[in-house]
Write a structure and sequence with these properties.
Chain lengths: 199, 202
């Protein structure tokens, strides 16, 4: 199990979640003024983690860096469409990175870009109350994940960060497929419960 | 469209993680595009992905990125619905292939192993009895499908475990058109079904 779990903060940088409130402001400056300095900050906050994600998914360092750049360029190009009140900035970056990864590293059935309705409903300003609520939601998800027992967390990480299918996880861990599925369900229900009353 | 049969939480998780095999992801995307409940669930699963991404140990970037002015039109989002994209047009234009009494199919191109196909069944026709190698997703597009686990109407998806052996029958009044994805090539049971499978490359 060594190496499977993350060691937050080992890169000597703050995780993006540490300055989440500022992220929305930086994105606003990118959207409204095409501000290169604000974009550089976003790039430095998210780029290294997107690169690490791509490498965990099997990309070599050069390809991973290219995909990290493409992910952040999509942020640059689509900043004006981003709706801060519909989901977190980090979630948005995750979906862009995930879609690019499927497109470039797997080359299978095209993924329908799901956040479309989120983008279509973009509003001009996120209300401060909503920003607070969003911060609270993220914190609850983070906490629920940190409290998962190792066997559930392992399955979740293999699905999200190693990109393994349920069958591949079952084969890797020597478990029946049904066990993998039930661990996923239980882990999800914990996160879901943690968010109750927040949606 | 009232949808009562949804994707399993584990399927939604793999889908949101981007790790659902291609054929299953195609059917899951089609269901999610029709189902606001599952879209909301996917959004929560994506939050989990975002939280995990935030915890990942970062890799140093080699280069700085100097963006040019945002390119016009780059914010466009794709408008095509997954179903039309997969079959390359409307359902009405599908060229069906006969595979048995009251049964037609159309295999769809899909990389990543497994099988993806449209099935059309006449009223009362049963889709051949089969077990699943790995997971299977069945999405009803027209009419209705009835099996041991319930009645499936347009937009409903049967997300069944490999342990389940089921014998779906098309609604006796209107028949059924559905989209079926298998993680593994389908194994039909019975001599006739196997023969049909051999002839038609099901």
């Amino acid at each position: 199990m060594v190496g499977l779990f993350f060691a937050p903060g080992t890169g000597g940088q703050q995780p993006p979640s540490a300055y989440r409130g500022i992220m929305a402001d930086l994105l606003r400056r990118v959207a409204d003024q095409a501000d290169p300095a604000a974009f550089r900050e976003l790039y430095e906050a998210f780029g290294p983690r997107v690169k690490a994600y791509m490498m965990r998914m099997g990309a070599d360092p050069g390809t991973a860096e290219d995909l990290a750049q493409e992910t952040l360029l999509a942020v640059w190009n689509k900043a004006a469409l981003y709706a801060a009140d519909k989901g977190s900035m980090t979630t948005w970056v995750f979906t862009i990175a995930r879609n690019l990864r499927i497109d470039r590293l797997r080359r299978e059935v095209p993924w329908q870009e799901l956040p479309e309705d989120r983008l279509a409903e973009a509003s001009a300003e996120a209300l401060p109350d909503e920003q607070l609520a969003e911060k609270e939601r993220q914190e609850r998800v983070r906490l629920a994940l940190s409290e998962l027992p190792d066997d559930q967390r392992e399955v979740v990480v293999l699905a999200y960060i190693e990109g393994l299918s349920q069958s591949a996880i079952a084969a890797r861990l020597g478990l029946p497929l049904g066990t993998v599925k039930s661990r996923m369900r239980i882990a999800y229900q914990k996160v879901r419960t943690a968010l109750e009353g927040m949606q | 469209m009232t949808i009562t049969h949804h994707l399993d939480d584990a399927t939604l998780m793999s889908f949101a993680a981007g790790s659902l095999p291609g054929t299953l992801a195609a059917v899951a995307a089609a269901h999610v595009s029709m189902c606001s409940r599952c879209r909301a669930e996917v959004a929560v699963h994506e939050r989990m992905g975002a939280a995990l991404l935030s915890e990942i140990a970062p890799q140093k970037l080699e280069a700085q990125l100097q963006p040019s002015a945002p390119s016009a039109g780059s914010g466009d989002v794709r408008q095509l619905q997954p179903i039309e994209r997969m079959i390359g047009g409307q359902l009405e234009g599908v060229r069906w292939r006969w595979i048995g009494p009251g049964l037609w199919h159309r295999p769809l191109a899909c990389t990543g192993g497994g099988a993806l196909q449209l099935i059309k069944a006449a009223p009362g026709a049963s889709v051949p009895d089969h077990t699943h190698g790995g997971s299977e997703l069945t999405l009803v597009l027209r009419g209705a499908l009835v099996d041991e686990t319930g009645t499936y109407k347009p937009g409903d998806v049967a997300d069944l475990d490999e342990s389940v052996q089921h014998t779906p029958v098309a609604d006796s009044g209107v028949g059924c058109i559905c989209l079926i994805a298998n993680e593994q090539p389908t194994q039909f049971r019975g001599a006739l079904a196997r023969l049909m499978q051999h002839w038609h490359g099901l």
